[in-house]
Amino acid sequence: MITSLWETPVHTMQLADDVLERVTADPGLLPGLLPAGHTGREVTWKSRTEDWKGGYHAGLRHGTGAWCALLVLGARTQDAGTLSGAVILHDPRAGAANVGLPGLPWGRPLTLTTCPGLLAVFPGWLGWQVAPVRADDERTVLTADSA
């Protein structure tokens, strides 16, 4: 089941191992995982696999399409309790961090721990970053943007 976290539709889901294997083999299955009626189901997606190794850090990224997706294919970590390689979603608009109520206009930053099978789908206008990956850690992530 996909959980909508805020007014701006950020969808997260933990994929079962068999589903993760199928999507890893065929990233074209990704749109079919979105909720019925989601506009991302009706468009073409472009994807690539990225390896986030020890020392990797992405300070700020934006999608190139209406929707972005991140799917964690694999994770090696020495300490699961850290935020090594976590993905942080945030509203890039000036003053957004000063809004008192989450969801108005978007909400506070959302930190997602990157464990295998995590799927996050969010609007392309949201900013996101990758927290520094610890020296002995590694993540393999499918990143995708709707066309």
Walkthrough of the structure:
The structure is a single chain. The chain is mainly beta and about 150 residues long. It has a single domain (about 5-145), classed as Sandwich (Jelly Rolls). Helix content is about 5%, strand content about 35%. It contains 1 helix and 10 strands; from the N terminus they run E-E-H-E-E-E-E-E-E-E-E. It has one helix at about 15-25, and strands at about 5, 10-15, 45-55, 60, 65-75, 85-90, 110, 120-125, 125-130, 140-145. It has a 6-stranded antiparallel sheet with strand order 1-2-8-5-10-3, with helices on one face. A 4-stranded antiparallel sheet has the order 4-9-6-7, with no helix packed on it. It is globular and about 40 Å long. The two termini are about 25 Å apart.
